[in-house]
Amino acid sequence: MRGTIGADRSADSYLPQHGNGGYRVTHYDLELDYKPGPGRLAGRARITAQARADLAGFSLDLHGMRVDRVLVNGKSARYSHRGNKLRVTPARPVTVGAAFTVEVRYVGTPKPVRSPHWGEIGWEQLEDGALVASQPIGAPSWFPCNDQPGDKATYRIAVTTPSPYTVVANGSLVSRRVGGSSTTWVFEQLAPMATYLATVQIGLYAEVEVSAGQRAAVPPRLVGVFGHDFGRQPQIMAAFVSMFGAYPFAEYHVVVADEILDVPVEAQGLSIFGANHVDGHRGCEHLVAHELAHQWFGNSLTIADWRHIWLNEGFATYAEWLWSEASGGLSAAVLAARSHAEMARQRQDIRIGDPGVRRMFDDRVYQRGALTLHALRVRLGDDAFFAVLREWTEKHRHSTVTTDKFIAVAQEHSLKPLDRFFRSWLQDTALPRGFE
Ligand SMILES: [Zn+2]
């Protein structure tokens, strides 16, 4: 059907202006050349996709940058780039079900995406390097993409930059080639990944091995303190593997940027902390646990729609409490009681199962999300509760999830119906009185 532009929108209930429902991406192959001084990025994205409708045209999300050329299936295509949409009209329409490739060459100085509710997100030039923190809408700041969490794809990310810099991106480093004064780093992420979890980190870092499969890139002056503060990360990993099931990716990388960051940021297979999160006293160990937990809850199991954000943040917050308990600190029950008392003092005007786009990252989504899980644990008992968590991560590994899917898994482990329980915790605004 001519005239279809793949809706130019996604089905996401909070951010439908991001993404395009007309196709799904199976693979992103990104070749990037970055000059840290001027902050200049030259990119070539080769995207493999499959049409979900007959497409006379389609759009990609791309913020700023100058597009020099677009090819569809190897042939020049017409395009226009306005706002954050790159609209492409191939020489021949793509038929429903067909696989197709799109190649985009682009250049510019990437700028973070300004968002009304979450500040500036995406590619950020640092004093000496760059970092990318894209949740939820920053991915188009550095590559053309179908920017919706439910459209997961594999990635190859190649970055060429001056040789003194270290590059970390998602997945395994498959080659590092020095040529003249620059080095090309190639990473492959073979597990499907949402666009907001794609990242590139560039800086003057020392590379540290925390333990087998756990590496870090850290400013050289912080290596000693980092060794202390992240010293128990292997134990956190072991505790989470026993509680949540197998770690979902080939490796885990931590980057400590030489910057002050409000909060650490998760990406697939890695987490990004600020220099302020390394204090020599393990003052941020709960955040080390929180970010690691996102590898299961958020990254392997990715929400199909931003509305389900509590499935990321409630779980990662509860993981902080589980680690406290497992490491001989305060029990999850004590931390839950404290959090409940605090929530009871706050306004009760949020439905954490559907908090609204403005309040996706409201602290109450994190706290009450964790409280929901604690209440479920009290109701089911430890054996059934942890069986639910392991079945949840196993059944939906590397896939996309919704609140209803979680309720279905929990219900299988409960003789009594859980509808009212979940409704009162997730859909009602009033805070349930306690955990029974
Ligand atoms: Zn989080």
UniProtKB/TrEMBL annotation:
| One annotated GO molecular function | zinc ion binding
**Entry's Gene Ontology cellular component terms:** cytoplasm
Tell me where in or outside the cell this protein is found: Cytoplasm
Q: Which residues bind Zn(2+)?
A: 290, 294, 313
Catalytic activity, EC: 3.4.11.2
Entries under InterPro entries matching the protein? Aminopeptidase_N-like_N, Aminopeptidase_N-like_N_sf, M1_LTA4H, Peptidase_M1, Peptidase_M1_dom, Peptidase_M4/M1_CTD_sf
Q: Reaction(s) catalyzed by this protein?
A: Release of an N-terminal amino acid, Xaa-|-Yaa- from a peptide, amide or arylamide. Xaa is preferably Ala, but may be most amino acids including Pro (slow action). When a terminal hydrophobic residue is followed by a prolyl residue, the two may be released as an intact Xaa-Pro dipeptide
Ordered alphabetically, the record's keywords are:
Aminopeptidase, Cytoplasm, Hydrolase, Metal-binding, Metalloprotease, Protease, Zinc
Question: Which residues does the Swiss-Prot or TrEMBL record annotate as the active site?
Answer: 291, 366
Provide the Peptidase M1 membrane alanine aminopeptidase domain boundaries.
245-425
- Required co-factor? Zn(2+)
Residues annotated as domain Aminopeptidase N-like N-terminal: 26-197
Q: Where does this chain mainly localize? A: cytoplasm
Q: Which CDD domains match?
A: M1_APN_like (cd09603)
- Top-level division of the source organism's lineage: Bacteria
The note describing how and how many cofactors are bound reads: Binds 1 zinc ion per subunit.
An individual GO BP term: proteolysis
Sequence similarity: Belongs to the peptidase M1 family.
Q: Could you tell me what this protein is called?
A: Aminopeptidase N
Lineage of producing organism: Bacteria, Bacillati, Actinomycetota, Actinomycetes, Pseudonocardiales
